[in-house]
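Q&A log
Question type: sequence-to-structure
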Amino acid sequence: MANSPKHTFGREFRAALLAVLLLSSPVLPRAQQTTTSTILSAEERDLSASVKVETIKDVTAALSSSEMQGRGTMQAGGDRAAEYIAQRFAKLGLKPLGKSSYMQPITFRETQFLPETSFKMGEESFTLGNDYVVTPPYSGDKSVSGQLVFVAYGLISNVPKRDDLAGIDVKGKIVVMLEGPPKSVDKLSWSKAKAQMTIIQSLVYRGAAGLVFVNTGTADRPYSEMADYLTRRRLELSESEEMPSFLPPFITFSNEAAEKLFAGSGVTFAQALELADREGFKPFSLKKSAKITVRLKKAKGVGNNVIGLLEGSDPTMKAEALVYTAHYDAYGVDKGNRVYHGAADNALGVAEMIAAAEALTQSPARIRRSIIFLAVTGEEYGGFGSSYWIDNPTWKIKQVAANLNFDGMGTEVYGPVKTLVGYGAEHSSLGALLKEVAAATSLTVIADPRPEEKSFYRSDHYFFVKRGVPGLMILGAPEGEISAWIKRMKEWEKTDYHQPTDIVRPDWNWDGPRTMAALGVVLGFRIANNDQMPSWVPDSPYNRERGTNKPPPPQQ
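Response status: OK
Response body:
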């Protein structure tokens, strides 16, 4: 699963900065009624029982092994993993649905920091990672220098009445500042007004040589965690628009290093933070200059989506397809040769998808619609594999019935799965279908217990949803107190999430992943055989014609 909100570290407004600086009728459903049932049919019981836990174990172990080197996109381990998945698809008799056999090649642009990247203040040098990080967006190599000035939040406002730039010209200066809002401003109002982005825009247009953010770490998102992510290599689709060259470098400092920025200014870092929220704050010089050098190593390379097809049996309905997705990429191998094994996130999800494919391909049951199994790459860097497939589909998007996505945090291995969370369930008929199948299999569907994490927006299903295709990602967890497994999940996030320590553990309960794969099989079987494709809830903001970004026209 891609980074959670606590791992974006203020990048939303920086990613949106580029946009600020640079200036058919719905498909009618079939007349037949969809068949629903809270009891499994004999075919569904057989399908569910045929899901093999051995397959899930074998695939998870193979993909998270050291041989796969973390399955990095645009790395040898990622290529090796793609070949392995393609071979599994071939053994199951799935037809190739890529551009070249099972593979859909995607060209990526990679960016890494070179050792020449530096931040110097007089004779003092700071260390990339430990002391500071360069934050997106990157506008290429930079060498800037200037006097350091502190402007608190950089806010100019009537309500509250502030002028954080009073009496100071920031042109050619390196601006040291805080991310808002000030204590006197409501966080929701600040966010709705996009105030942070407006402030950044203003400072850029005023000619600031560089922006340095301080006091950004919290207990929930410590600086060390931020630095770990932002010093890793960065990937984008090769056709992604380059950042404009006039953007200054954006830097984030640790609190410890920020102390040194203020040393000798007559104001300590702690005092500066206090002054920033006082009425009548005035900007001041830190009485020293700094030089920022950013040197980037850029390269292009290819990663692959892996796509297999189980053709439907109905002469008409086989032109429509259900798409299963699971991302097979992890963070690969870093410059220190650390391997990010990605066992729970998301070798396990790929294994569940392959186990579902195995059950469906070997079943004598009649499956009317076609089914696509799509193992995507580049998810950890922004859902690039799914995004690319949606924009360059190997199946007509208007004929994609739905998406079922296997991705998670490994909560299904905590014990036998009895509890489900359906991300996206409230937006389409897939929600009702999930409840029906859950009731038929003695499972309980609950609301998202951590809505602040915004998991619905953070994985591959969301790219389908944005383009009018109903999508669903399901999290599985054991029965009992929700707080107990949430506590375990949070502990895992702190120690293993997106880390080399995300490996298969001896205490994993494999009955849970088998339940998840079996659930996916039954859901897929019903979607593939129902007369109607899944439909949107009328008031869902994603209620639109498949393959479009626009809402449907009003009903007459």
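Response note: The two ends are 41 Å apart (CA to CA).
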